[in-house]
Amino acid sequence: MKKTAKFSIGQIVRHRLYPFRGVIFDVDPIFDNSEAWYKAIPENVRPSKDQPFYHLYAENEESVYEAYVSEQNLLLDENQAPVRHPSVAVEFKRRSSGEYQPLNVQIH
Prior knowledge:
- The chain has two helices and seven strands.
- It is mainly beta.
- The protein has one domain (12-102): Roll (SH3 type barrels), CATH 2.30.30.
- It is globular, with a radius of gyration of 14 Å.
- The termini are far apart.
């Protein structure tokens, strides 16, 4: 069964359960991380592997980091403030809409 990603590269999203947000910089159509990483997620909140997973340049109040998040745990972020992660400024240009356009891809 082919899955279509709900979100796209450059969108700002936030986690449904945990207090962080970020810019999507890559999408895996299904889970593509280690089994150890997957098993480290508490079973009561562990997502299905059969859905898109997103790579984020993420931030919370204390720090910036990279995150790997299932589609079911993401929501569009209504807060259009810039994302602080340093890679965002290197790899993206901020559009007037608040979303980010990858610098290595031309969007017409």
